[in-house]
Amino acid sequence: MTTPPLAAAAERIMARCDELATITVTPERLERVHLSPEHRAANDVVEGWMREAGLTTWQDAAGNQCGRIEGRVDGLPALLLGSHIDTVPDAGRYDGMLGVLLAIEVASRVRPHASALPFALEVVAFSDEEGTRFGTALLGSRALAGTWDDAWWELRDSDGISLFEAFQDFGLDPARLPSAFRRPEQLVGYLEAHIEQGPHLEDADRALGVVTSIAGARRFSLTMTGHAGHAGGTPYDRRRDALVGASELVIAVETISKELDTIGTVGKLQAYPGGVNVIPGRVDFSLDVRAEHDAVRDECWQRIQEAAADICARRTLEFDAVEIYRADAAQCAPHLRDGIAAGIRSTGDDAPMALYSRAGHDGVAVSALTDFAMLFVRCAGGVSHHPDEAVTVEDVAAALDAFEGTVRELAAR
Ligand code: GLV
Ligand code: MN
Ligand code: MN
Predict the structure, then answer these.
(1) Which residue puts its alpha carbon closest to atom 1 of ligand 1?
(2) What is the domain-level CATH number for residue 78?
(3) Which ligand 1 atom is nearest residue 290's CA?
(4) CA-based angle 243:248:254, to the nearest 5?
(5) Crossing angle of helices 294-315/242-260, nearest 10°?
(6) Are residues 22 and 149 in the same domain?
(7) What is the whole-number distance in angstroms between the Cα of residue 312 and the centre of ligand 2?
(8) Is the domain of 135 the same as that of 225?
């Protein structure tokens, strides 16, 4: 197989993103979650593309789809390239998938010269980064990193199916999970290409950027409890309206986050009992807090709790919070960052833009195992986690060129 020119390879990546977008639980909107039949179908398609690129393939015990090319001699530690193929509900088609397809294309281009590589090259399509199904993110990459928590087996999806059962339904044996754990000496590092999911590259008129670190994040399940009652008969001075209290807190999350230059989001909110003529007695809602530095993120959460206490005192409500996810900020390794920057420079951008990632990525999990770095690709309007997610084929060609250049740079060192 001859190596296609960059433009043709970029077209193929775009076409494959389109093809993966057809593997969805509902035709109207893209949704493909961990250990679902769609995940099975996507793994099969990705495995086919890996084989076409000349990789030896396997699905690991966590449902991650993997492929490998040997380097100078068999059995060398591997440079791991990849991203994830699960999605959020009503997703775009590039978040995760673009990075997997870029990695496969890089492997395909490097393979004819693999006998000169001082490392093996592996590609991974992580099974779960978003956490859409079980509420806990990075289950695929945390398995690979060996930071699995056995308490997760009892996580349940919205149908009450446990993670343990979902593994079995998918054809995986939970008892074999540790065979997916990698050891540090098996890897030389992890590189991920990903759309930026923000507007900074576009605003700076840059196609590509080198990531410095990934923001630290914490997520909580929150409950505001008051008392339900008659919407007509209950005077205001007797109301304990949980939804008005929760609403005040939603505003406080935004105000505090802006003041501290953090990012706070309430993405889910459900009022109970949910009658048009009933005062809400309880509200369940979510909170996602992120910041470049963990101390500021934690200060933000502290101030949100103080705001909640103040609201509850004024409105005679109760507030409860359960932390459901925590990932500390992860620093990209300087030597791999330099490799990415060199890859970008090889495309003609003499001064690559550096930026930190506000979004979470598999690198957060993999950083417990090995060094990592990331290449960001401009996306239209910075839009992501939305079907309007878009990239240009020219930017994808530049990303492929830079990503391949990065691997060559690291191989040459
Ligand atoms: C992952 O996409 C996240 O940052 O939430
Ligand atoms: Mn995402
Ligand atoms: Mn992603």
Answers:
(1) 360
(2) 3.40.630.10
(3) 4
(4) 125
(5) 150
(6) yes
(7) 33
(8) no
| Residue linked to tokens 């008051």 | 226
Position 1 pLDDT exceeds 60: no
Same domain? 177 vs 202: yes
User: Does 96 sit in the ligand 1 pocket, CB within 6 Å?
Assistant: no
**% of the chain exceeding 90 in pLDDT:** 98
Q: Tell me if the pTM is above 0.70.
A: yes
Do strands 318-327 and 216-225 pair parallel, antiparallel, or not at all (unpaired)? antiparallel
Residue where a domain stops, chosen among 327, 360, 382: 327
What is the dihedral angle through the alpha carbons of 305, 310, 312, 316, rounded to the nearest 10 degrees?
A: 160
Please state the separation of Cα 281 from the chain's center in Å: 34
pLDDT of residue 245: 98
Same domain, 268 and 381: no
Q: Is the pLDDT of residue 92 over 80?
A: yes
The domain that holds 241 is classified in CATH as: 3.30.70.360
Residues 53 and 176 in one domain: yes
Ligand nearest to the CA of 286: 1
- For 152-173, write each residue's pLDDT tens digit: 999 999 999 999 999 999 999 9
- Whole-angstrom CA distances from 73 to 77, 117, 413 are 10, 9, 17
Look up the domain containing 304 and give its range.
220-327
Q: pLDDT band at residue 254, thresholds of 50, 70 and 90?
A: very high
- 225 shares its domain with 305: yes
* φ/ψ of residue 62, rounded to 5: -110, 5
Instruction: Answer whether residue 4 shows pLDDT above 90.
Output: no
Average pLDDT over the chain, rounded to whole?
Answer: 97
Query: Is residue 293 classed exposed, middle or buried when 0-12, 13-18 and 19+ CB atoms within 10 A define those classes?
Result: middle
Peptide bond into 5 cis (omega under 30): no
Residue of 87, 130, 356 to mutate, ligand 1, most atoms within 8 A of C-beta: 130
CA of 95, closest atom in ligand 1: 2
Q: How many domains does the chain have?
A: 2
